[in-house]
């Protein structure tokens, strides 16, 4: 046997590839939701692809459009849109960034992932595949998949419908032996030739002397077989994520309900998660553009205070935002962009708190802000000013260092605006217990203040914070709650 | 016999049988002292319990409602989790919170636009698990909402405080602990309207007072001048009652 194949020079471990084949991608990339649907050929006369539901209803590829309609009048038909398919494949490649840093586009409808280097991270092939399967299910694409010790092995096994998830060169070679010749993706002339020789499976072809293969079928076939088995390297060009994240989805029909946008949005956000994982970034603000018929855009910003990477968090935020939107006009397309990125930081949680894992504290604030408004949630901070109404503030963003001495004996409640107290309400109704504390400040700006503050007890037993201003009027400014 | 006492034991263990003394036996790690021994004595578990909704009923702001919870908030705000104030009726005044030892970095104030949003916000934050305490101000009624909030507080292991008008005292409420606050010259009188796993106890006086007025012995240094030197104003010179 020849020496080790060199498919991936970066690693010493056994190479392992995973091929994902999306047999219905040309259709599913255009569908808004699962249902009976079919893809027409270029001339628009026959079905070339049927959705799973259409297959259940008795439709099959090759059927004339009239037949299809007579069987199933509610069928939704799509014209081929190779651009859209390529776009979708690229977003899937971004999505795959969650699982591998080395992804190869195999147009029109396949992805190849290098996973040997990821097995350790995911704690084994089985666990990696389980996680990937869960995520794939939410995307709603039909897939065929197979692992392979070479890129071609994975591809042929996947497209042959093997649903294979194994490790090791020997194990793969064994499965490959039984691969029918017609699944080798050879030119049809060559296939006929091989069948004429009575060769049905790959092992029979491999059993022939190398010289014989080379002289009968040309050196190309030999080279191909060597790349399948791994005797010859098969270098790949990996997909590079673009510097900016932008996704565009054009609907095949107009969308009038904002919640119907969630399905394509989920796919976009899954791609975003893969993108962020791959680039080690967090997204802080997304911009969602709804494109209307006249080309106008409705823009919506959705933010996350601390930055988030996973699709679920963003979907939740988008859902909150969309719930509030009443679509004025039908939407034709959806565009998602990341407005602000942020470098990833390692989150740390208290190891000794037994509390079941809560959501990220920043997630909560972001959700509240999305529903209630950007300024609805604010921290309270102390501000270095002697005037009571200025010595607190809702701070936004940066933390200010306050060097002033903390004023003592202040009430827990401060009224938004001081309330005037009628003179006859003062003693005996209000008993002054402490004061005055002269607060005189602000002569440098328009809000000059000169007040004598007292603590008073009201007849009902409550304590209030009141002051008399320069003109002798009394005001209530706070309650000792 | 052994099996019988064993099954009784298991019943007790499951909590199917309630014992009159149970409140005293409850694990203390779940409850945090309120900072006032008089109030602790009223609360089941000798303090504010985790994952629980507490209703504080009073006539008007200034009835000691903040003073009762500030020591707890001071302690909780040392944790990583938020202390959320949802639609407080006035401004929570930063100097007073700081004075009480509250870490302002963990405090967030939420302003909602409608009653529906307010309930949504309370529920979301209580069940999120990332709030150590959530303070909310609710109008009368809301029986169903309170039931949901109790579930949310338990789910998120959050201490929920609902501040309501004392006229709600006759209304049914799912909150396991309901306290009625009445201002008193020396603090606030707290009566238990309801406490889970215990009989209502007689009202107690809790010394929640402005620091400048109360606690004359312990706090001499911090106590400001009490003499009224109001000058021109005749009211200030009036003798104290």
Brief rundown of the structure:
Chain A is an alpha+beta fold and 481 residues long.
How would you classify the helix and strand content of chain B by structural class?
A: alpha/beta
Q: What share of residues of chain A is helical? A: 25-40%
How far is the N terminus from the C terminus of chain B?
69 Å
The H-level CATH homologous superfamily of chain B, spelled out, is P-loop containing nucleotide triphosphate hydrolases
Largest inter-chain contact set? A-B, 70 and 69 residues
Q: Helical stretch count of chain B? A: 8
Characterize the overall form of chain B.
globular
* Assembly type: heterodimer
The total of helices of chain A stands at 15
- The whole-number mean of residue pLDDT values of chain A reads 83
Strand coverage percent of chain A: 25-35%
Structural class of chain A: alpha+beta
Biggest sheet of chain A: strands, sense, closure?
A: 5 strands, antiparallel
The stretches of 5 or more residues of chain A where confidence is low (pLDDT under 50) are: 1-11, 348-356, 396-403
How many domains of chain B? The number is 1
